[in-house]
Amino acid sequence: xxxxxxxxxxxxxxxxxxxxxxxxxxxxxxxxEMNALSAHxxxxxxxxxxxxxxxxxxKVIIAAAGMAAALPGVIASMTPLPVIGVxxxxxxxxxxxxxxxxxxxxxxxxxxxxxxxxxNAAIMAVQILSLSDDALAARFDKYKAGLADxxxxxxxxxxxxxxxxxxx
Length: 168
Fold this sequence. Notes:
- The protein has 168 residues and is an alpha/beta fold.
- 46% of the residues lie in helices and 15% in strands.
- The protein has six helices and five strands; from the N terminus they run βαβαβαβαβαα.
- Strands 2-1-3-4-5 form a five-stranded parallel sheet, with helices on both faces.
- Strand 4 (83-88), helix 4 (95-102) and strand 5 (111-112) form a beta-alpha-beta unit.
- Helix 1 packs parallel to helix 5, helix 2 packs across helix 3 (71-78) and helix 5 (118-130) packs across helix 6.
- The chain starts with a strand and ends in a 9-residue tail after the last helix.
């Protein structure tokens, strides 16, 4: 088994957020790897990783970064693979990271999810992989159906909540 998705974080302090992506990929039975790389502290390792990602069989890279948030863009500049950026909360509640990841120059695209939205990054990775994997697409369809079921059950529970002026 080889990884199809790589979860890269600028620091292991990002792990509590990025575990959400790992948990979802694991649930969807998608092989993945997790590593810490820093665009500023380990630039040579980032370049080696990005240059060899496709040869190693990776299909999607999820890259998280806070503060200066250069990691997703740097990786995207060095690989043809899709890169999904996850801005991590930092001193400016993650807005600095969000803007740094979203504002890529023309020709360097990074799909960007919301601040700390590692789960959505993993969902997007699964959607990309599902285009060429029918079994994964079926698992993802089941997941999506489960989301609808949660709302149906929530409305059933809300129907039991009583207020003097509540009409439903």
